[in-house]
Structures are given as structure tokens and as C-alpha cells.
Queue: 3 jobs
Job 1
Amino acid sequence: MTKIETVIADVKAKIATVTYMPGTRLPSVRATAKRYGFSPSTVVEAYERLQTDGIISSRPGAGFYVSDVTAPLSLADMGPNLDRAVDPLWVSRQSLETSSDALKPGCGWLPPDWLYAEGMRRGLRSVAKADVKVISEYAMPLGLLALRQLLTRRMSGLGIEAEPSQVILTESGTQSIDLIFRFLLTPGDTVVVDDPCYFNFHALLRAHRVKVVGVPYTPDGPNVTAFATILDEHKPRLYITNAAIHNPTGATLSPATAYRVLQLAQAAGLYIIEDDIFADFESTPAPRLAALDGLSQVFYIGSFSKTLSASLRCGYIAAPSEWVESLLDLKIATGFGGGQLAAAVVLSALTDSGYRKHMSAIHTRLANARAQTIPRLAKLGIEPWLLPQAGMFLWCKLPDNNSAATLANRCLSQGVVLAPGNTFSQSQSAESYIRFNVAQANDARIFEVLAQALA
Amino acid sequence: MTKIETVIADVKAKIATVTYMPGTRLPSVRATAKRYGFSPSTVVEAYERLQTDGIISSRPGAGFYVSDVTAPLSLADMGPNLDRAVDPLWVSRQSLETSSDALKPGCGWLPPDWLYAEGMRRGLRSVAKADVKVISEYAMPLGLLALRQLLTRRMSGLGIEAEPSQVILTESGTQSIDLIFRFLLTPGDTVVVDDPCYFNFHALLRAHRVKVVGVPYTPDGPNVTAFATILDEHKPRLYITNAAIHNPTGATLSPATAYRVLQLAQAAGLYIIEDDIFADFESTPAPRLAALDGLSQVFYIGSFSKTLSASLRCGYIAAPSEWVESLLDLKIATGFGGGQLAAAVVLSALTDSGYRKHMSAIHTRLANARAQTIPRLAKLGIEPWLLPQAGMFLWCKLPDNNSAATLANRCLSQGVVLAPGNTFSQSQSAESYIRFNVAQANDARIFEVLAQALA
């Protein structure tokens, strides 16, 4: 990147993250040149190019201003990192775009033949025979009652008390989060994420033009001291985290940390989204923030993409009662009613006597995959940060501080998709980490490609 | 509404529509009191209540300011009209929430037994036997290729030239529009809508916190003179309209109007969303803006909810090539990959030899329903604004300037859901209009209830 490009990228990033608001004056050429240690002519050239692109405009004698009419939102341009290799969307795009025969230890889901296809096929056949209303009509705004009732019974098993009238069906876990973001956040708000956290939280938060602060994640949950300082200094509006099995680390929230986090959140009036899409992978349930809080400041969300099928889109939100009506208005405005069909198939598959047996087999299969993968990685000097109790992820340190972004690009050219650490890290402090999916690691070629790429 | 409530509602509406930006100073108590012709103490009381709710804050000696931290987005509070009877979401909520046995001449879709349930059942059975990847995996980011190819062939029949790589599958027509709004719009931008237009455009635009300007709709399309003036005065970013059969009027865009609108839009750099969800109801195709424009500034969207099934969620966007990659990033960030299953069922049903025959039968059935409904309405003094060539809607004037909002509330208490005119009208100039769905008007009780309510 040239000096001019550096200035351009920095200004674009500050506009994208609303550090520079539309209509505000940019720092003077002189001040900017001094800050970078570049010559003023470099800064002038950068500002002129930004002006040509319509991103900033000049007012004679009064300096440069951020244009009011911005270019269409481009997530790739947003945020500080313009290198696609460590862009939060890189892993998603590579995982989704490469053929399903490619090797994808970087992806975030199980191989298709690990999912509950038999239950899905039975569900589809059963729905094909259902009443014409199920086949053809919009659902009620909350979504299929029988599925919402089932979900409250499942939540109750985790200590979360919710009425079916507090449960809103959505198209996916991601859409659940997006809907709550839209509801609670205004551009410029601050949101706390775990560092590291699921990379798509970063991508989605960028789309909402909010400020993001990362709290370091420990094997017991977020670092509570750092969390308290962040609430104090940044007055965030929202904290988003995983329940149960943390993505990408595989760590589990301890009861003491859960209690302390909730206490701090309640004192600060902070809302929390607890994303529990990996719930069914747990053998021993960890504490849920939503259970302690009684769905007062915590929004609890989930989906069926990781256990039942990613091809059928269905997720849910369990929300504080007083927000349900407004969330429904927003759901209708942004996606209209939603259907009954996906919910009916999910209901059929979840209540199928085979589902529990299927998940029990998956637990065993994942435990075996972890046991096989850890020594294979160890031979390459790749070590897990912790040994997870459940789930598909290992959060691993590369040997010799290797760059995971470089490694990921090398492996991609050999047909292996990795998940480089900095896509998960707000502080960009996970450059030599990768997230490794043990369910996608059965092929010996993965380890050959890794060995060559590390050499 | 008391005087105090009037001031509160007005301030809230101005904040919601970003007329008052966060952080800006409100007009003084004295000026506001003068403007309304109320006493200053009324305004003080209103401001104090707004302060208690955290919506505004006072700075000693410096007046009242719009709070930076706003309450969670509530669409019901947004915009000028706080009366739920003429809220843009009122018709959606009533139509979706009342039981499917209620009488709903106000709703925007066909009765379930008019849709293509047989094709759907066949599609579901066929997908139940499909490869495990179709059943279980995420789709590629653009969505199922075979369906995108089919869609480009269908578009080609309307003169719209698009490559399959320009077609993005989504969860619904509404989600298609929302995705483009998110991509193109920034809070405070101006958007042009038809007056009247589909009420959910209003709801969705409120959620995006943009300014909305209505262009009067004529039987040939938008009033071109007014359109030119709006582009000149308001510099809007986007115009959203229906292709083919206009909702709610049933009017059809004339070639001359289409040409002129596009010429003005191109000169002004205005983007257009052309919503063509009623395409398959047309007998003789009207001109498409997307065809004239060659998908350069026009985004063309559609779905299958109105002809195939509302229960299966699947829509699409045909976009200018240069925006496809960024739209995909946004689609993944906000909803992740999307599935293959809904697309596979749609593909099966659309390529089923029975679909064309089914739609041809629907055309005849709708023509008969129009012919039967018009005289039944005429007996009550309710007259259509024009006689549509196709589709399910009649845009009707009530006798004696009756208020449609009042009528709708009266009819709702008798189990009949109407669509009052002002939910469609940005200028609120359709107080004595209703949109009437002839496919939902078979029951004589509807006309009895209407007669009583008008009396």
C-alpha cells in the first residue's frame, strides 16, 4: 500500500465506522501530514482522490468535509482491514462458495451427511400432505404456535422461563440477531463483543455502522475486570455473546462469570444477546445468562442450522415481553409474515423420536473427531488454546507465530479453506491463531497441505 | 388527543423521520407555543414528559436537545400518524393475525386454496428424495443456479436482459427490497414512493429512518411533471415502484411514462427498485423499467408468494452487475447463506407443466371475481378509481367522503378486515379510499357488514 492509499483507506474506514460523521470537517492537511509523518502533498493527493470519488468534498477556504451522500454501503470497504484475507466475510464467502467437495476445516458447520437428513426427509413428506393452509398461507406474525411451545419446553430444560408469546420465529439465527440489532442500535452506538468472537458478528455490526469494543475472552467467559472497565468507559448499548459452547474457542461460561457479567450489565442498563445455536451439542448444560436474567435484559436466540439442516431456514428469538410487539412490527416491515412450512418441517424433525438418538451419536462422533484431530495438529506444532468439552471447534495457536492469513491464502490455493484468527478478533491480536473444525478434518490431505504451507 | 399529546406526538414523529437529528436543539418553548397556538405551559409539560422518557434532554440555560441514545426503534411511534387504524402496519398485522377463516377483502394475497398447492406438494415430495446436500447444506451465496437460470429466461420474456450471475435469491420480496435499502440508503436520505403505494414500503422506509416524498400516481404511472419537480427539489436517492400491476390502484405503467421516468432518473443519478411480485397475473405485459434501463440503475425484484405459496419463503433480486458482490456480502452478513430447499421446491413447482395452466385459470377466476365484485360495491356507492386490466385489487372511493379508517375499525369489530386508503398514502390524501381484494370478496357477509358500517 502506498502512502496515499494508506491515508485513503484510513479516511474511508473512519467514515464507515462513523468516527467521521457525514457533514463533519476532516482534520487539516497539515495536521494529518504531521500525524502520519508524510508530506502535506501526499495528504492533498489522497484528499483529492477521495473528492473525485465523491466521498469527501471541499469548501473553498474551509477545508474538506465528509460528503452527505455516501456511496452504497460496501462491507468490504468498512473497518480498518482492507485485506480480503482477514476480512470478516472472507471465511463465510470461501466456505459457501467453494464446492462442497472442497476441504473446509475452516467452516462453521458439520458436513451434510452428519446432519439429520432422515428426519428432514420424513418432515418434508409429512408436510407435503398437510392442510392447504400450511402449504400456502403466511404464518401468524409470531410463527407456528406448536413450534414455539416446543421451544419454551426446551428452554425450560435450561432454566429459561419463557412464554410461547415471547418467542418469535425468524428465518435464521443471523436474522434473529439482525432484527434485534435493528431494533436496539442506532449508527454510532457502541457494542461489546468477545475477543475473539464469531466473525459474522463483526460483519453484521459493520452493516449497522456501530462502534465495536472487544472484551478479552478467557476459558471461563469474558474477562470480568475488562468488561467492567468497558461498561464504565464506553457506555455500550449491547453485548453479544454465545451461550454454552463459545465460537471460536470452544470455552464454556462459568457460573461465577455468568453471575458477575449479568450483575454488571443490569447495573449499566446494558442489553445482551445470548446466541445459543450450538445448544444441542452440549452434554452437560452450562449456565445461561437468559436463565439468570429471566429474559429481562437478555434476548436469547437460536436456530436449527447446525444440527438439523442449514438448507431449511428457521430460527427464533425469545425476547423480554415488553419488546415483542415492536419486534413483530419490525419483522413484518422487513420480511413480511414468514411462512409456516419451514417451521412445520422443523417441528416434525425435532419431535421425531430419532432426533435425540441422532444428537447423541453426533456427540460421540465429535468426541472421537477431537481425539483424532488434536494429535494430527500437534505433529505440525499446532496446539489448541483449550480442550473443549463439546462442539466442533478447536481454537489453535500456529507454531513460530506463523501468520494465519498468509497460511489461509496458501491453503486456499490448494483447495483447503481455513479460518484465520484475526477474522474473529476485534483487536487483531489473533494473527497466529486458526479455528479448526474437527468434523471437517477427516481427510489426510488437509494435514499434508497444512504441513507444506507451514514449511 | 390532548394538546400536550399533540406536541409529544409531533416531536416524536420529527425525531423518527430524522427531521430532528440526534443532538440537535429543539425549537424554543415560546416559538413552539406560538406555532401551535397553545400556552407555553402546555409545551413545557410536553417537553418534560419527553425528557422523562429519555427522548430529549435539557441543558441548563440552553434549552432542550434530542437525546443521542434513542429508545429502541418502534415503528408504531414513527411518522406522523399515531392512530393504529391508519398505521402502515395496521393492515398487515390484522390480515396476518386474524384467523384464516375471517373475511379479509383488505388483505394483499389470494385465499390459500387459489394458490398452486398441488405443485407445491409435488415439489416437497420430490425434494424429500433429493441429494443430502439439497436437504442439509447452505446454498452458494447467489442461491440455486438452476432457479436463477429459469428466472433470467422469464425476465427475458419481459425484455429484461440479465445474466444468472446478476440474480440473487433471497427469503422474500420484502427481504429483497430491505437488502437494497440497506445497501443504498443512509438515515436522512430521501426516497420517492408512489402516492398511493403498497403500505409496507412506508413501514420499511420508516425502519430505515429516511425521508419519504410521494409522487401522485395516475392511471398511466407516476405524474411525470411532479416526478421531475421532486427530483429537482429533493435530490432523492431512490424511487421504489411496482412493475406491471400497481398496488393498490391496479394501474399499468404506459410506455411513454416509463420512458420519461427513466430518462429523468438517469439524468438525476436516481436508483430505482422495480417490484414485480405480481408479474404472473398479467395477461399482456406492460413495459418494464428494468428492460428499458438494462439493469443499470434499476434493481428488479420479485417473489413467488402471490402465485405459488406464501408459506415457502423465496424471492430474488436482479441487480446491476457492479453491485452484486457487495449485495452478497450484505446478504451473508445479515442472513448468512440462505438454503437450497425453498429454491428447489419453487423450481420444481414453476417448471411443473401444471403451473402455466394454473395461472391461466387464476386469470379467468380473477376476471370473474372483478366482474362480480364491482356491481356489489356499486350498490353501496363504492366506486373503483379505474377498471384494472388484471390482478386482485380495486382501488375504490367510498361514498360521501366516508372515513376509511373509521369504516375499517367498525368492520374489524364484525370480523371483516379492510385496507383503509391512508395506509397507502404519503400525503394522507386517501382518507375516503379503500383497497379491495376481489379474490377475498366471495362472501355475502362482507357486503352486509360494509352496508351496516356505512349506514
Job 2
Amino acid sequence: MRTTTEQHLAPPRRLTAKGEATRSRIVEAAAGLVLLHGITRTGIEDVQREAGVSASQLYHYFGDKQTLMRAVLARQTAEVLAAQRPELDALDDFDALSRWRDRLVALQRARHCAGGCPIGSIATEVAEDDPDARADVVDSFEQWEAPIRSGLAAMRDTGLLRDDTDTDRLALALLAAVQGGLLLTQTRRTTVPLETALDAVIELIRSYRP
Amino acid sequence: MRTTTEQHLAPPRRLTAKGEATRSRIVEAAAGLVLLHGITRTGIEDVQREAGVSASQLYHYFGDKQTLMRAVLARQTAEVLAAQRPELDALDDFDALSRWRDRLVALQRARHCAGGCPIGSIATEVAEDDPDARADVVDSFEQWEAPIRSGLAAMRDTGLLRDDTDTDRLALALLAAVQGGLLLTQTRRTTVPLETALDAVIELIRSYRP
């Protein structure tokens, strides 16, 4: 297991406030292009144009496309998790679980079901061709799964779920439901698959009440 | 809703046996490259080389890359469904459901968890950039979901599930579990996510026994 993605978020050297802003603008521009077209079809020149920076500026902050794409994944991961807060960090009762579910669905509705999961999309794109990037995506999913695991474990510890509930297993099933639900929601352009997938696993979790 | 993918499988005109074999070899070569590298990174020249055909031969059978990629999706869909048979067509009791689940897991184990779902990967790649291709993927997923729906409905009709069971909803949750499970299995290179996701929804289905 690799260390957390924090290290990729950290700038490669100490930057001035202005340098930090430029670096951030580059990552933001790249992330937007990757969301729309994927990593492969996002050229370094496209990022330069979108961010309004020169080739040498881009090179100064990110030596190559791979380094830039790591930063994009770190940024997307941080954004995906932030969009699920505060619920994601306190999934410790059934109400919180419902609010988190509603938030995920509302996010998709707000973007007309377009885009899918930024992490899942990158996962698909890099999984067979780039083992390092795949390892980064493993980290990203782990950052997502960990708070789900903690929440369900807390529910068990406070007696909301039976003592013998395998909460790690349910947490993984929930993350899979999110991913499968998002992919089908993106493809069919309706939130029904995401809602159905999440509600099914949440219903299973409810069946573990004492 | 569009018509079935059968029409895309049909050759554009009546072909001789030799022509049919050449066409099929081109689609096979293209499908292999798409599995490894995705649609974007699969160039027409790569397909020519891999299939051992000339540019004019390829053009004869597929006027453009989009037409070829439709044929690739149709082929992948047929293969994905065939790999789940005979179970997929008769998911009408709990044993069949278990055997289907085991078959899906065994397939991933056999390929060392690489590759993910050929249909899901294409879905991710085309969803935002190509509405026609996205509509084709909707068809592909529907061809997959329909027999799951039929199987669970049969289980309800024969009394294995309660009369009031919403089997359509459970079928969609199962397909989402397959997709999310496959994506996480591909990323983590272990069948645990696929097994966990499928087992969770199957456990929920079992809870609907009379």
C-alpha cells in the first residue's frame, strides 16, 4: 500500500503565492479537460492554452504529463471527497447514510447525470496501461472507502448494527454500488441506477439492525 | 429506446464467406486493441496491421472508425453475454444465481483481474464525447439487464420470492454491483470487490424469500 495522495498534492518545491496560484490554475485547467475528454485526448498544449501559460511555465511546475496527471487525480480525489462532506466523515447513523445518499444523487442531478465519477473514469483509462497511475487510483478509492468503513463500524459500536456485522464488507459493497450506479447513471442519463444501487445496499445494511 | 444491437452485427451488405471472415478478423483485431488501449488510442493503422489488411480493405468493410467501433461494441457485448451463459439466461433460482456469480468471479480470476468490463470501459470512454456511441452502450447494458430481470421475475412468479418483490429494481442493483465490482476488481487486481458487491445484492435478494 502506498502512502496517501497528500504527497502528490504537495508542490514539488516551495512556491511563492503567485507560483502556487499558477500551479493550481494549470491543474484546474487540466482537470477540466480530463473530465471532458479523458487523459489520452488531453494534450499538454491544450492544457497550456486553457490555463494561459507557456510551455516553459508548465514544464517548470510539472516535468511531464504523467506528473501533471497525478496532480489532476489528487485534485479530483480531493474534490470528489469534499463534495460528499460533511456526511462522508460521519456516516454513523441511518439518517447520515440517507443524507449522504441524497447528496450523491443531487450532485448527479445537478450535472444532468453527465461526467460520471472522475476517479472511476481515470481508473478505467489507466488500469491496463499505467501501473503507477493505477496504484494512485487504488489510493484514491481507499481514501473514499476508509470513511465509509469508519462510519459503519461506528454504527456497529454504538449498537445501531448487530455486533457480528461485517461492516468492512458492507462498506466495500457501498463503494461498488456508488461506482456501478454512477457508470450506469452516466450512460443512461438518469439518476435511477445510482439511487437503486445505493438503496439496495443501504436496505441490506438496515437488515443488520439488532 | 433504440433497436437491438443485432443490426450493428449485421454486415453492411451481403458478403461472401471469405469477405465475412475478413470482416470478422478486422473486428477481432480492433476489439483486442480497444481492450488493451481504449478506443482513442486505437488507430485505424494499428487495426490494419493487427488484422493484416490493407487500408482499402478496411475501408471496404467499415467506412470510418466510428462504424468499426460500433461493430467492436456489438462484438464485445455478444462475447460478454456469451461468457455468462448458460446461467445468464436462466437466473430463475438461487442456485443459478450462485453459479452465475461464481462464473463472473472465475472469469476475472482467469484473467488475473485485468481488463475490467469491456462494455463498461467503452461506456466511460464514449459517454461524454459521442452521443451515438453512448446510445449503443445503453442498448448493450439493456441486453445484459433484460435476462437478469427475467430471471428474478421468474423467481417471483414461481414463489421463490415474495409476490410484492420489485424484481426490476433488484436486477438493476445487480447490474450496478457487477459494474462497480468489476471496476474496483480491475483497479485493485483482486476479485474481492466483485465478490463482495455481488454477494451483498444476492443476500438482499434472499431476504425477499417468502
Job 3
Amino acid sequence: MKISIKRQYFIEQLNHCLKAISPRTTLPILNGIKIDVSDDQMILTGSDSEISIEITIPAEIDNEEILEIEEPGSVVLTGRFFVDIIKKLSGDFVDLETTENFQTKITAGKSEFNLSGNDSNQYPLLPEVNDADSLVLSSAVLKTIINQTNFAVSLSETRPVLTGVNWNFNKDNISFTATDSHRLALRRLLDKTFNTEISNAIIPGKSLSELSKILTDSDEDVEINLSQNQVLFTYGNMRFISRLLEGNYPDTSRLFPENYETKVSVNNSEFYHAIDRVSLLAREGGNNVIRMTVENNNVELTSNSPEVGTVNEAVNASAIEGEDIKISFNSKYMMEALRAIQDEEVTIEFFGTMRPFTITPSESSEVVQLILPIRTY
Amino acid sequence: MKISIKRQYFIEQLNHCLKAISPRTTLPILNGIKIDVSDDQMILTGSDSEISIEITIPAEIDNEEILEIEEPGSVVLTGRFFVDIIKKLSGDFVDLETTENFQTKITAGKSEFNLSGNDSNQYPLLPEVNDADSLVLSSAVLKTIINQTNFAVSLSETRPVLTGVNWNFNKDNISFTATDSHRLALRRLLDKTFNTEISNAIIPGKSLSELSKILTDSDEDVEINLSQNQVLFTYGNMRFISRLLEGNYPDTSRLFPENYETKVSVNNSEFYHAIDRVSLLAREGGNNVIRMTVENNNVELTSNSPEVGTVNEAVNASAIEGEDIKISFNSKYMMEALRAIQDEEVTIEFFGTMRPFTITPSESSEVVQLILPIRTY
């Protein structure tokens, strides 16, 4: 292998690739990035066996030369270290040349590195994903969906399926659900369907979190393909593959109550900052519990901690309906739920002190956030 | 105590004050910030008993009202938590009111916090520092001096005096020395003297590092006063007091050799980046050792590590004099030494493979960085 490649572009692609590499891998070769050079392109691969990222670099982009190939070939080089070297070199282009035993010479300016590489035949093959049926979403929409649900996945391995987001392909919509059994985040893509034989897929939260770092807010297409065990996201010159979680996702549809007892509408950002202030004291007091009181057409947030003090926030509500209520909840869950709603006004519906309550945009049913209250007496 | 204060200005002053507060204090009241309000000003005090910071806030600055005093008084409030509250409140002004038992009510907008405060009489008195004789330096110069020396103090408590920077008041200059016994940083203020009875002061590195975060690059004066055990820096509305280290600082003047065997001049920034690249491999190989070779009028940096590979950097030297030499050193020390020199060109003088070498600006003797080589054979 002997090539010359535009350094800045190479760094960006390598950085994407690194997102799949974990320092805690059990297979040493997976610490590396695989570089495959054919006659007309280079393919970079990084993987931690849960996530794999494959990036194709062409010789030219918009008539600008990116990659000059003198001799095809392939090698695996230690990921993070190799990328650090490319970053710190000087000059517009960097040259790579592999000699015997996968020794790789990296030169740019007055610098010459000689690294021990590995045989790319030792690198595991990526899983095959059938790309017959595709679901297509824009990068911005997919990124938003991930941000609106992924924070609510469980961090505990007690029930592994809860560490993922459940993508449900319904007859007339697609829904995305995450829950750690204390709160739940639901996003619906109304008027969008995916005709596949698979009725749902549970995608690991960790994979979605890495994917969302790569996605931009653009309207560029992301093509999504599913097989029994894997999901493939194709985005620009990148293929992002994640394994799926096995097992049955709990039926969460029964969790959503009907007929609220109390309903309050507030400005999202104002309410968020009020919760943020009250939670300061709640946190200092050693828990995150704050209390919300709806009484005499007033809404108030309070928290108290015997050693530290008390706090009181009056909340501006644009509408209050139904019964008075006093209810306690975890302020962190409330703040994450509010952040996941982009709308200016949100509506909170309560169904009694001990039953889960919901937070939704006042004008849409695309997002539903559900939180279990905390018993404080 | 009952006051109203401009929130943004208050936050800035509190942030300065926090720099003196350590979460690991043994005296619980030192977790707090002392607030003293007299008829016409407020004084904030933070301390960890090593460093104390005292800030005076007047009622007006440039005819703009900063502080409105309704009732003088004083209280101690938990530092970090109190500052977090002030930061998260809304509105331009925040009101503080102390009632019985040092309960303090903080109000702004629709928020009301009630915090348990402490009696300010329990707060330790700050040490007195005689301010008869002052050394005056500009903020920018003092900040530079700290940055050029403080990185070289010892982090080990084995020889406590080495954890400080030695300020030496000589007959015709002032010198600042730091060493961890592997390398030494010396800065001289030529043509500047300080006529005091004290011939030197060892200021803890930690204090200088906090002070340097507060100092700006302006030419505003910093007044420095010394007593036997304390140093006081007066800067704007702030008094920064640090204890001094006790003990005798070693005589470092004998360390500087004369009559170099080899002398090399290089561009500071180019050389720094070359060292940075070579050190990548040195670090990956598990140590920080790199080798410099001066031979046949060429300068080369190399490093190798059997498992990882080798690296080779040709260095552009603007002048090479004297004997050929091969010498090994810690790349981290070299990079820190180069960063401490602001000049574009630096000169490195070698006195043999096993003796310390020096790095200085090519055109000045204000800064001398000295590094002990590493024996590699």
C-alpha cells in the first residue's frame, strides 16, 4: 500500500471512525483502524463488535484531489495513536507506505514515523445487513428523535432490553420508546410507516448516542436497513452498523392514563429554569425531590432540606384546569423531559398523587414524556 | 443585614472569592463565604487558611449603582452552593436579607431561597500583613512571571520548599526560581529591585496558580507586601493573601554551567511542534524519553519503542556550534520549558551528555530553563 491523502479531510474521517473504537475491547485488533486501499478508493473501518463504522474515501471530491493511490493494499494501525500522529503532523498531505510485515511509514514535512501495523486479514468481518427495504429519514429528524428518547434508557443491565430504544413499526406510524421504569420518553413519527417483516427493533442506547454525535442538523438522507440482529445506517460516505438488543420490549401502551384530574400549561423555558433553581437546593439536600403544588389557581415549586434551607418558586401558568394537587418528583427527570420537547409551551397532566403524570407539547402529540411521582409522606 | 446587589457583578466577585475555598478544608466554616456589610460597602472573604481572598464592593462604580444597603450586618453562607443560586436566579438585582439565627432570605424575580447561615464571628481573622514597603508590578508582568516559573515546582512534599517559587531580592535584580530537582525554571527581573529586610520569600505554587487565574493581561498595578510568614497581593478591589513556605531554599546559582560544548539555535514554535510529534511515540512507548542528535551540522530528534515503532524529525537549526552530541531528555520538560519562553528564537547550550543543559531566548538572559538529561545506555 502506498498513498498520499489530504490531511485535514483524513482527520475528519478518522475521527468519525474512532467513535466505534472502545479502549476496553477484548479483541486487541479492534483497537486498530483498518485501512483498505483499492484501485480507486480507501475504506476505513473501526469497530468494537457492538458498533462498526465503515467510511469510504474517494480519490476526488468535487474535482479536488483527496487521495492519490500509488499502490493498493491494506493494514490495521492502532486507532487513537495513529489519529494523534496524523493530527500533529504539518503540511496539507500525508504519505502512507506499508512495507514488509505491515510496517507502515508515515511521512509529512520533515517528520517520519514508522509504525508496527497488523495484517488486515486478522480483522473480523462486518455483519451483513440486507439493504432491500429502507426507511429514509433526514439527518436532522433522526438526530432529534434520538435526543428526545435516548436519555431515558436504563443504565442498569438488570433488564437488558431497557438499555435500548424500542423502534416500533406500526400500521400508520413509527414510535420510539425508552424507559428506565422510573420515567418514559415516547416520540411518534405520525404519517410515516416502514413496511418490513420486522415489527420492532431495540437499538442500544450507546449506539444511538455515538450515531447522534456524527449526524448533523442537515436534511441529508439517512437510509436505515434492518436485519434480525443488526441495523445499518447509511449516511453520506459512512455505513454505521449496530447490533440489536434481543428480547421482548415491555408493552408500554397501557402505561398512558386517560382523563386527567389536573392539567397545567406553562412556558417550557421559564418552567425549566424554575425547576433548575429549585433543584439546586434539592440536590444540596442529598436527593433530587421537589414538590409541585397546584392550589387556588396558583402553581408553586418548593424544596426543603432541614440543614440547608428552603426554596419557593411561583410558576406562571397559562392555563390551570381540574383538581388541586400536591405531587413530588425527581427534578432531573423533569428537566430532561422538558429539554426533549422543543415546543415553547408544554402541558402537564396529572392523574392523582401516586400515578404517573405526562408532559407533552401543548399543540402536538408527537412527544409524550411520562414520569412516576415520588411518595414523600 | 439587608441589601440589594447587581447580580452579574456580584457573580464575578463571588467567582474570584471561590478560588480561595477548598472542598477539603478541616474547618467547616471555611466552606463558606463571609459577607460583611457596613454603611457604605460590602466585603467578601473566602479562605482555605493557606490562601485568603478579600474583595471590597462599593455602593457605586462609575456613578452606576451596584449595591444598595438598607441595613448593615454580616453572615457566612456556604460558598459554592450560594454562588450557584446567585448564578441561576433571574433578574438584574438580587436581594439578601438576614433574619434571626443568621437565616438568610435570597429573592429575585419569583424565586425565594431561605438558607441557614453562620455567625461571622466564628470566621477566622485574616493574617495582618504590613503594607509599609511595596513592590509594584503590572498584572501582565506578574502573570507572565508566574507562568514562566510555576510549572517547574515540585509536586512532591518530600522537600516542602521545592513546592514553592523562590523570590529572591538581589542587589540589582529580582529573580524567581522553581525546581523539582529534575529541571529548573529561572526568571529574572533585571533593573528591578525591592528594598526590604527580607532577602527572599518562597511562595507556594498552588497560591501562585490561583493568583494567576485572577490576574489579567492588563498593565494595572499589583502591589506586593511581605511579612515574615505572609505575602499580600493587592489588585484592584481585591486583597489576595498567601502564607509563605518556611525553610531554606537551596542555592541554585551553582547549577548553571559555563562554556558550552555544543550550542544550537532554533525557531521556538517549530522546535516545540517537532518535540510534540516525537513525544507522541515516546509517550505511547511508556516513557517520555526522546533523543536529540547534533551531528555533521544536522539536528535530529528521534524516539523508538520496540512494540510501537520509531520516529524521526529533522530540525531546522539557524545556528550550530561546537561538538557533536547525542543526548536524551524528558520531552514534557522540554515542551514546558519552550512554552515558558515567549521569544521566537531559542538557544540550547549543552555541556556534555550527562550534565544539565539550558534553554534561553537567543536575545535575552531574562529566562533560563535548565533540564537534566536522562542516561539511556
